């Protein structure tokens, strides 16, 4: 039987950007969408529970333990462990797919869905490497789908204020951005745990978990419960550390408002890195260098992780900084946010801030449902528009983060040729810019 997947794969990759793809999904603002969920527990639950007015027809998770509550909450949804089988069997019944798996499986799940013309919502960071990001950006256009990355801060009033204040000239020229995170928490029930040996020793796979499917495109290795269900972020084969987890929130406002684009140079300094570069360092600093953009000045952006907070400058007029945050330093004013961009303020005395807000710049950017990226995505599907963190935007933001992750992981200076996705003079990084994938997990080559 002919399927949309077979039809789309029959189109030559030479037609990318010009091919007209039939829209097999017709929605109206009053219609109910049919969703599939890949990744039922954890962040998945935080997303699929936001669609009460829509229908969830299928749920997929490799770990029955994590999916148990979700399966009980949606007893009529068909259950799967392998999203490839789910999509092959149910593609005619699915309009859109929510993907909230570990970072390393975002790409194959999203690509498999987009090849079938399904709208996709993907948790941040969008993908696991730079080539995947570029491919997902192409795919969303090629297959004509509505895409969204789940960095909820991009829906906030706060991030719009940052951009409106900057565009109105409140900050003046911004040449420096500083963001910081506290020390990594290795305590019980945290998202990070450092193994006693590298690689971790083999353990028995628990009942209900399909370890082979959990590994997905990554190279096979023995199971250890340090990976599952939540501490995979610290292992670079699966996650992207704190930088990958948080920077799509914390650096979203400066990336958008300053129109940063791609860096030309990135520096990484790590204290006591793991010798085989497989696990995140305890303390690190990453510095991106961006060139001038029109009349916007060059920018140096610094990420401080695990060290002390930035030194407080006298002109900031504060006694302390929050545990995590971001500062945009302008030649007129300096702006600060927390780890997410939802509550920006100028670093000025309280009375001056109150006076500023009485005559703040006009709100020129349309507002959406505050911190509800799933709802923004659904509204975009039904109204034939694109949400703010669609893959065009989200892939670029995440690429900046991933070049930083490479610098954090391997140290030294990366002279980044963004056009060709190359770390100039460092060919050893090529395999991390485009990671190899196991047989059965390779997608997107037809788009290049």
Morphology = globular
Q: Write out the strand line-up for the largest beta sheet, numbering strands in chain order.
A: 13-12-11-7-10-9-8-14-15
Class derived from helix and strand content: alpha/beta
Q: What does the average pLDDT come to?
A: 92
CATH topology name of the domain at 4-13 and 24-153 and 372-395, in short, is Rossmann fold
Describe the structure.
There is one protein chain. The chain is α/β, with parallel strands linked by helices. It has a domain of about 160 residues: NAD(P)-binding Rossmann-like Domain (Rossmann fold), CATH 3.40.50. Helix content is about 30%, strand content about 15%. The chain has 14 helices and 15 strands. Strands 13-12-11-7-10-9-8-14-15 form a 9-stranded mixed sheet, covered by helices on one side. A 6-stranded parallel sheet has the order 3-2-1-4-5-6, sandwiched between helices. It is globular and about 60 Å long.
């Amino acid at each position: 039987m002919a399927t949309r997947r077979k039809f789309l794969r029959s189109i030559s990759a030479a037609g990318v950007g010009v091919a007209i793809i039939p829209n097999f999904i017709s929605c109206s603002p009053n219609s109910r969408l049919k969703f599939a969920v890949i990744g039922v527990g954890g962040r998945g639950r935080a997303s699929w529970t936001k669609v009460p007015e829509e229908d969830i027809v299928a749920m997929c998770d490799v770990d029955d333990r994590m999916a148990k509550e979700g399966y009980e909450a949606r007893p009529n949804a068909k259950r799967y462990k392998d999203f490839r089988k789910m999509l092959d069997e149910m593609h005619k019944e699915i309009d859109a797919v929510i993907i909230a798996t570990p970072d390393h499986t975002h790409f194959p799940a999203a690509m498999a869905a987009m090849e079938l013309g399904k709208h996709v919502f993907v948790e941040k960071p969008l993908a696991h490497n730079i080539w995947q990001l570029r491919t997902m950006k192409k795919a969303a256009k090629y297959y004509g789908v509505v895409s969204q990355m789940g960095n909820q801060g991009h829906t906030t009033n706060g991030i719009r204020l940052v951009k409106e204040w900057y565009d109105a000239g409140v900050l003046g020229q911004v040449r420096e951005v500083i963001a910081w995170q506290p020390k990594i928490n290795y305590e019980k029930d945290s998202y990070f745990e450092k193994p006693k040996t590298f690689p971790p020793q083999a353990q028995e796979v628990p009942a209900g978990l399909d370890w082979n499917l959990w590994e997905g495109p990554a190279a096979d290795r023995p199971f250890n419960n340090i990976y599952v269900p939540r501490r995979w972020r610290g292992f670079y084969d699966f996650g992207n550390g704190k930088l990958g987890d948080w920077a799509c929130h914390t650096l979203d406002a400066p990336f958008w408002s300053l129109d940063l684009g791609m860096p030309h140079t990135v520096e990484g300094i790590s204290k006591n890195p793991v010798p085989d570069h497989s696990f995140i360092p305890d303390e690190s600093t990453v510095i991106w260098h961006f060139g001038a953009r029109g009349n916007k000045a060059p920018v140096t952006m610094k990420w401080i992780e695990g060290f002390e907070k930035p030194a407080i400058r006298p002109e900031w007029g504060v006694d302390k900084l929050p545990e995590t945050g971001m500062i945009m330093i302008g030649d007129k004013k300096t702006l600060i946010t927390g780890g997410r961009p939802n509550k920006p303020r100028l670093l000025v005395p309280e009375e001056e801030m109150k006076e500023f807000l009485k005559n703040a710049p006009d709100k020129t950017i349309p507002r959406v449902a505050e911190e509800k990226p799933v709802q923004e995505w659904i509204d975009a599907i039904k109204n034939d528009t694109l949400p703010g963190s669609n893959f065009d935007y989200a892939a670029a933001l995440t690429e900046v983060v991933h070049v930083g992750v490479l610098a954090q992981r391997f140290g030294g200076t990366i002279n980044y040729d963004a056009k060709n996705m190359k770390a100039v003079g460092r060919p050893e990084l090529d395999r991390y810019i485009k990671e190899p994938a196991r047989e059965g997990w390779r997608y997107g080559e037809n788009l290049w």
